[in-house]
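Appendix B. Worked example

We walk through a single record from start to finish. Start with the input: the chain for Saccharopine dehydrogenase-like oxidoreductase, Musca domestica, length 421.
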Amino acid sequence: MSGEKLDAIIFGATGYTGQIVVEDAIEILKDFKWGIAGRNETKLKEVLEKISKRTNRDLSQIPVIVADVGDEKSIEKMAKMCRIVLNCCGPYYLYGEIVVKACVEAGTHHVDLSGEPQYISAMQLKYQDLAQSSGSYVVSNCAFESIPAELGVLYAEKNFPGTVNSVELYCTLEPNYQDTTSKALLNSGTWDSAIYSMQYAREMWRLERKLNKEKLPRLRPKLWMKPYAHKIEGSNKYYAPFPITDQPVVERSQRLFYVQVNKRPIQFQMYIGFKSLFLAIVFPLFLLTIALMAQCGCTRKLLFKYPHFFTRGTMTHDGPTEVNRKVNEFIYILKAKGWTTGTPESESPNKEVTVRASGKDPCYGITSTCLLMCAKVILQEHQKMPGNGGVYPPGFAFAKTQLLDELGRCKSGLKFEVLKQ
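Next comes the structure step. The output line below is what the pipeline stores for this chain.
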């Protein structure tokens, strides 16, 4: 390739999700100069050839860059070759920091798909000051975790006629199995990241205490997590607590709104839905069991080796079949409560607004679209983002940009709508 700087590089392009991102980039990044990167040049070229045949598009001119997380110089070289790196190479706890460090030092922006809280907190603590000085924006969780949740809260607040005190998010995944030979919803890479997060849960809590040291106002009424299975109006599902990934990300964004722009933070809780009361009761026990197994080396090896067994086939090393992946659906119902005038905290909220975020192929199609659109928005609207750079969660980073509107126009099917106002 020539010495001209690229707009974007998709790193980890040969992975399961990386290949989907490359295919979607043909349309979403059509007005930009972009390339792909990974450790194996032959496999990278094979990816381009395969996608070229699938889409009937000539991708022979897409630059191929060899970069390996085991070779720091190659990562530094890649970071200097573009304006933004789209990092699809996980687990990020193991492989993420070297890419973030190279990007921040080069003044290059960075987005990734991470849903690993300890990695995210560590990057914010370690590279915030350097990113601000170099003009680099580093944004994690630019995927199904946590763009729909973050933007859902912003969308609910945008459509609330007053002050929002709290938002409760009710998540439902609706698998559709057109190919009945497989019930997989996710590739095992997601499972591996979850196990690493559970393994280092103590470190995550320690990092979050250091990160969230700013004192917040005492909010009333307090939003407490419902620890029991319950139902909500407009849904036939039973919901169980699901305080994983999205919740700390949304809470971090809300904390930053208070600390940096003196805006009242919104309290947040998240729940996941099941068809039966039994599953909703058992689910927290399942999470606790997996978390305990992740603490011990021998049982942790079993978790990594047999994701199909422990998840009853929903996570496998091969991942979902394409036909099943594209018809799977998700629904987020967000219930925002607050006051129509002022913030009379001595009184109960007098207004509730319900919004919905929904779409198909959430774990891969929407994930790919979110990552690409976040990168595109940074390239086009970085002047609307906080400060001159920094390491931020997506809700705070993109609050003043057109990301919400841009995603609504994409073919991914991610849709936001008001159900009750």
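Two observations about the output. Residues 30 and 63 are 14 Å apart (CA to CA). The first helix runs from residue 16 to 28.
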